[in-house]
Amino acid sequence: MPQETFNSNYVEEAVHQRYSEGARNVSPELCCPSAYDPRLLEAIPDEVLDRDYGCGDPTKYLQTGDTVLDLGSGSGKICFIASQIVGPTGKVIGVDMNEEMLAIAHANAPQVARNIGYSNVEFRKGKIQDLSLDLDLLDKWLGQNPVTSATSLRNMEAAVDELRKSHTLIPDNSVDIVVSNCVLNLVRPEDKVKLFSEIFRVLRRGGRAVISDIVSDEDVPQDLQQNPELWSGCISGAFREDLFLQAFQDAGFYGIGILERQEEPWRTVEGIEFRSMTVAAYKGKQGACLEHKQAVVYRGPFSQVQDDDGHILQRGIRTAVCEKTFSIYSREPYRAHFELVPPRVPVPASEAPPFPCARGYLTRHPKETKGEDYHLTTEDRPVCGPGNGDGSCC
Q: Is residue 89 part of a domain?
């Protein structure tokens, strides 16, 4: 394809063609290989394993009972691994737009269910940047209502709007964790903001995204972006490392962190390094900031840090936080870094005034959490017990 005629409309077609070929014939050059728990692979047919094209393993971060959404599920490998980790009380949904890949996943799902003893996986046809539109239902509608004129085109557009509302592919706030394995980079540039907003939309409050993808250490130049083969090969659409994290932040996530980063690049093209990186991001910082007399103590090791809401936390200092922030710090990924100081007498929600989170840093005097009238004196007792070895006190 001549460079001057290439535009982003060709991206989806280039990706579709290459991954359709990858469904028909094993294509090991697609993305970089990853290691998985071999025990979890035993239940998965070779047809699926041979056609997995990923760059990481987000399933390592799943929990029993999770409802999981896998974006770009392909032949189903990540979904079938996830189904074993979340167990029979969990649920796994795979979304992909490639019919050949979906056919492999659908065909092998019954065998995996027999091998593990339960069925908790389903596959749906859709674009990962538009998780409200069920493409199977749209295909069915188009089969009955072919588009042959401007009028029928308007009818289709109205039908699409109705399908999004009444038969949403993935409803709002419906999954615990969104995972993806080397797929986000395949989305057209103009759709990537919507892609991250869709991930945010479908997650429950307190949910998380764990995404493995290819990133670059420099901006990908225009000439590489205009190469359809490099697009479908996970190169042209790669996020620059810092902008990958920024995309989660811009979508409203917090607690964003790098879980894994490939030390050596997977590929180097014109001096630009491309490598696999796995990122986690959390949903749930939205909401009012209310004063409940709570404090946290940052354990270190840094002298101070700043969170995604601008709170400055100094090592060892009782820092005043609102109830929402206190709750966030009580969970992953923050819990290991903080001592939590709740009030001695809980503040009823109806009596909690607004908290000035925008000020960034506020110390909390111990009397604020204990109460001004708290004058308890306890009996004298040894500071240390007999567990010191020699029986002495500290």
A: yes
DSSP percent split of the chain into helix, strand, coil, nearest 5: 35, 20, 40
Average pLDDT, whole number, for the chain?
88
Confidence of residue 55 (pLDDT cuts 50, 70, 90): confident
- The CATH number of whichever domain residue 325 belongs to comes to 3.40.5
Burial label for 372, CB within 10 Å (0-12, 13-18, 19+), is exposed
Q: Are strands 312-314 and 267-269 parallel, antiparallel or unpaired?
A: unpaired
For β-strands 175-181 and 318-321, DSSP reports them as unpaired
Residue with the bigger pLDDT between 204 and 309: it is 204
Cα–Cα distance, 40 to 123 (Å, whole number): 19
Confidence band, pLDDT 50/70/90 cuts, at residue 1: very low
Would you say the C-alpha torsion 161, 167, 169, 175 has a positive or negative sign? positive
Rounded Cα–Cα distance for residues 50 and 30 (Å): 12
Q: Using CA atoms, how far apart are residues 297 and 299, in angstroms rounded to an integer? A: 6
Q: Which residue has the higher pLDDT, 64 or 222?
A: 64
Pair (222, 83) in one structural domain: yes
Q: Are residues 236 and 257 in the same domain?
A: yes
Q: How confident is the model over 128-157, as a mean pLDDT?
A: 96
